[in-house]
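For practice. Supply one:
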Amino acid sequence: MARRGPLPVDPIAEAKRQWVAHGWADAASGMSAVTSVIRAQQLMLARIDKALKPFGLSFARFEMLRLLAFTREGRMPMASAIARLQVHPTSVTNTVDRLARDGFVVREPHPADGRAALVALTPAGRELVEAATDALNTEVFAEPGLTDDDTVELVRILARFRRDAGDFRDPKPQPDPL
């Protein structure tokens, strides 16, 4: 049964209160942070799913199509897609299989490496991802539910968290031109 409105109390704040009451005060703030991020992800994914539903796309399928559409030729090695999407290779393979079955991508032999494959966007895939991107931009990304300042601050905090977790390295400073 779906919830009909806001809860009368923030369940994460109540959980934090219970954490402290049970003697786990040193972990209470961290529990609140982790649980808040997970709940925020659920809320954002629900908005994304709603926007992508008319296109028959999951967010994983959209991300693959958008990644390909960002390339100059609409194709890239599978290994590059796996690295950029930061998910398990099996997940990328399954996503590509479904997109290929639906005619949105094709697999091509790699021109220089006989063991590797390229995944390439089809015209139908390009058309679909452009329409889906327009919907996501309008329905989700243009107004994520935060003020502009909060959005910038949240992205900075999460980027620092991701960097410190080993997700990426800061780029090396470029020397000044001579």
Remarks:
- The first strand starts at residue 75 and ends at 77.
